[in-house]
Specification:
about 60 residues; 2 helices; mainly alpha; about 85% helix; single chain; about 0% strand
Length: about 60
Amino acid sequence: MDNRGQASAEFILLFGGIMVVVLLAIHMYNTYMKDLSGEIASREVNQFNSELNSIGKYFK
């Protein structure tokens, strides 16, 4: 029996499982951020952008 082959196959399956979990987490986070962006009032976003622009002049 080749135990190294079995260990490699188990490692590949483990890595694949971890990748699936990471991709699902990224997808859920992306969906959450899209939903969250709809809840933020545009007035708050405009105020934040103007604050950033006023601070940005100090870094040019």
